Structure prediction request, 471 residues.
Amino acid sequence: MKVLLVFPPQEHYSVGKTIHMDITVEAGGYPPMGLLYIAGYLEKNTGHEIKVLDACVENMGYDELEEYFRKEKPDVVGVYTSTYFLYDSVLTAKLAKKVNKGIYTVLGGPHFYFYPSPIKGAPEIDYYCYGEGEYVLKELLERVAKGERGDDVPGIFSRRSPETTLQRHADIDKLPFPARHFINNKKYRSILAAGSPITTMISSRGCPFNCYFCGSIVGGRKIRMRSPENIASELEECVGLGIHDILFFDEIFTFNKERVIEICREIIKRKLKIRFHVRSRVDTVDGEMLEWMKKAGCRLIQFGIESGTEHIQKVLNKNLKLDKVREVIGQMKDIGIQSYGDFMLGSPEETIDEMKETIAFAGELKLDYAQYEITHVVPGTELYRMALDQGRFKYDVWQRFVDNPSEPIGETVWNIKQKKEIEELNKKAFMGYYLRPGYIWQKIRKIDSIPQAMWQLRAALKVFKKFIFKS
Prediction:
């Protein structure tokens, strides 16, 4: 059989594009790692013909996608599905059926962790995958190839069998590496990277913390970690593909200090010429770890700092100590690793004065990058449960959207009453941070290459024009 895995167009974002998301789009996007993991596993463990299409990075609209389906003639179309782009995933499945009613359509992805039920009004979707898809899709394809139904495959549900049977976790240290040869790696760039192309990597799945605003529970609360040797081997493969800039997308890359140091030792031992970024929490980092990471090629660490007040840290169950934040950012400056901080404005119990404290705290830290977002409630979070319990919305906005994904979603901002004031504060925060003469001079001094810097500037100006200067 011919199996086509699709990252759909992203034309119907449910809550309005954030600045971070628009930067991602302007920067060429990130590789669809979930699909590439599945593709690698299916390629190695089945005899099916596998293809991957990233319709977003290929800048495909639905007319182009329909033409692609007619040209490729797939037997099975698997579609990545997030709640934020739910309608795009549904439209992609509908389009496959329009081209050929005999195509089997399968939707899987993070959406179904939060809403594990068939999508109403979408009879074009044959199957849904709940959980990590490597093992599940292999077994489903075996059934389909024999002309059998796959409703009772563990991890699969459908309209005929709407109850999910099992969430299956893969042994991530034994999975084949993501099949990057299925995509055009040269099209992926990052406004944060020193060069291009870039790729993303996942060295662990899961997060043990329970921040009330975070919906990243897809990998579970228990961290499953790949071995340093396995990670270094994938890095070698990336270098062989001409990719030297790596963005680790673990929820908390630095969770285990000994493992981080061993990964760094492996990179140094194999003489891998790479630059990498990681995501982390400041309270899982220390000076020794940072020294090893710098030696191995770490260029930037992204932290979710969220608030510059101890009060809101507790309200959000983030529970960072601000002195620890200051300490770690200072250590990074001394060692030569760039810092990126995420901040939220308009959280529960947060006053305008506290938001201004957060903005001032970000300025005090002198981060290389500061990202501000207005607090939204998202599926699967404690914050969302709190909003419903407190009656902050007239109805369950996300459930109504899931039931009717073609309709605009209702309000998801936590602090609706002060939304306009917070939006204005958010814009001023960006302008005040990035338009400082000292900041601009600092970025000029740190230019890695003129072509990369010029491209980054063009991308940044597009974002500022759309989100900052637009009335």
